[in-house]
Write a structure and sequence with these properties.
The chain has 257 residues and is an alpha/beta fold. The chain is built from 8 helices and 7 strands, in the order βαβαβαβαβαβαααβ. The protein has a 7-stranded parallel β-sheet with strand order 3-2-1-4-5-6-7, sandwiched between helices. The termini are far apart. The chain binds nicotinamide-adenine-dinucleotide (NAD).
Length: 257
């Protein structure tokens, strides 16, 4: 039996990287998925690849009207919403003193306020599903290992991702009485297009940067996007029905050190 059979999901920022890997895994596991992004060409191409159980819509998750349109598409196409996966985010790399207002606003807005607004847009439909089904409903966030640990020169990103952890815990408690579970995924550095944008904070050379990352990971390898996607499938599935309010590291043992 497919682990997400019968469920309807929205995955934000799914045209690339962890979101795209998650969309593929969710559809493989029987979900019907609305994917959102700013990159319409890549988002539509992924929806075309995944076929009738996937639909793409342009949605900047900072924009409440666009968020509502994404939720409306899930309801119109598949009758409701069981899972919201807030995955979209943006990187930052640089020394604290040099951070201007535009950079600070962008990093906090996209990593924290966007998921907040998207969750507000989706909650009415998640509530309906939770009330109708013993399985309840599920909200996921992609925060980061930077929600649990810190490195120098990523401070606004680290602060925003710690904020996502707080959002997860508060919401988990508010929504537990309604059987809506809320969890966050905390991947270590993963080789997606975003990773290259973190490079200035890590090393001058790409291979050197990856090698430095690997050396900090007890399992000796960086996670692949599918590692986060597999964790998302589990946390969104009924197998995780007693799990809420957690921040799950996908880090090869880094947080054990
Ligand atoms: N790659 C890593 O090393 C890493 C590690 C930990 C956490 N993360 C987090 O994982 C998530 C996914 O990142 P990724 O590595 O797959 O990066 P990515 O760049 O491959 O994908 C991010 C996607 O989000 C989209 N996006 C950006 N702003 C958006 C907005 N306002 N509304 C909707 N979509 C938007 C982008 O267009 C892009 O397609 C992010 O939240 C990121 O912070 C990444």
């Amino acid at each position: 039996m497919a682990r997400l059979a019968g469920k309807v999901a929205i995955i934000t920022g799914a045209a690339s990287g962890l979101g795209a890997a998650s969309a593929r895994r969710f559809v493989e596991e029987g979900a019907r998925v609305v994917i959102t992004d700013l990159d319409d060409a890549a988002g539509q191409a992924l929806a075309d690849e995944l076929g009738q159980n996937c639909a793409y819509i342009h949605d900047d998750h900072m924009n409440r009207a666009q968020n509502e349109a994404a939720v409306a598409l899930a309801v119109e196409r598949w009758g409701g919403l069981d899972i919201l996966f807030n995955n979209a985010g943006t990187p930052f790399s640089g020394a604290f003193e040099g951070i201007d207002d535009a950079a600070l606003d962008r990093v906090v807005d996209v990593n924290l306020k966007g998921p907040f607004r998207m969750t507000q847009a989706a909650l009415p439909e998640l509530r309906k599903r939770a009330a109708d089904s013993a399985s309840g409903a599920s909200i996921l966030f992609t925060s980061s290992l930077q929600a649990l640990m810190a490195r120098p020169n990523f401070t606004p990103y680290t602060a925003a991702k710690h904020g996502v952890h707080g959002l997860t815990r508060g919401l988990a408690l508010e929504l537990a009485p309604e059987n809506i579970r809320v969890n966050t995924l905390c991947p270590a550095a993963t080789d997606t297009p975003m990773l290259k944008e973190f490079l200035p904070g890590m090393a001058d050379d790409w291979e050197e940067a990856k090698s430095r990352f690997r050396s900090t990971i007890p399992l000796g390898r960086m996670p692949d996007p599918i590692d986060t996607a597999n964790a998302a499938v589990f946390l969104a599935s009924d197998e995780a029905r007693m799990i809420t309010g957690i921040a799950l590291p996908i880090d090869g043992g880094s947080t054990a050190t």
